[in-house]
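Tutorial handout. Part one gives the primary structure; part two gives the three-dimensional structure as tokens.
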Amino acid sequence: MSNKTRSVLKIIAIILAALAVLMYMGWVAVPFISGYKFWMVTAGFVLLLISSK
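Part two.
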């Protein structure tokens, strides 16, 4: 896996986790994914595991 791919996966993981936290705090409202906050954080963690060396 190239460094560029790792960087992209890490950025996606950070965005997923940040979006879930912002939705939990009530600062961002995205109704159609509000039930998937746990899975968003889980997917972010998995992406970080995949992108680690």
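Part three, for discussion. Helices lie at 3-25, 37-51. The chain has a mean pLDDT of 93.
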